[in-house]
Write a structure and sequence with these properties.
Blueprint lengths: L2 H6 L1 H15 L3 H15 L6 H20 L4 H5 L3 H8 L8 H21 L1
């Protein structure tokens, strides 16, 4: 990866297109599980694209293996796909970017108020 790809994210776009091409070859129930999981994995805001790509690659690989062995996606991943995604990303209640921004804003406001008040 060169500097330009890092700045523009073109490497991530290329990798994402490769994921979607692999997912298109999956059976219908596996494809539906992939669509649901990629959404639930992207929701925790503590992941950038570069940190999320290896997780997505692993999930897609798991779905591909399950399809090759004739197992349904639900047999491999369970019925709670959102819970599976949350477990992969650190579980429910993990800190997100929004939490960090809120903490930073609160610190900045507290600092400004200290300067004004004392």
């Amino acid at each position: 990866m060169n500097f330009w790809e890092t700045i523009t994210g073109s490497d991530l776009t290329r990798e994402w297109k490769a994921f979607e091409a692999r997912a298109a070859a999956l059976p219908v129930d596996h494809k539906e599980a992939w669509d649901e999981l990629k959404f639930s994995l992207a929701v925790p805001g503590d992941f950038s694209g570069r940190k999320l790509m290896p997780i997505l690659d692993g999930v897609l690989g798991l779905l591909e293996e399950a399809a090759a062995e004739g197992q349904s996606a639900r047999d491999v991943l369970g019925d709670d796909l959102a819970g599976f995604g949350a477990a992969l990303t650190g579980g429910q209640g993990s800190r997100t970017y929004r939490d960090r921004w809120r903490e930073q804003l609160n610190r900045n406001v507290a600092r400004k108020l200290e300067r004004l008040g004392g």
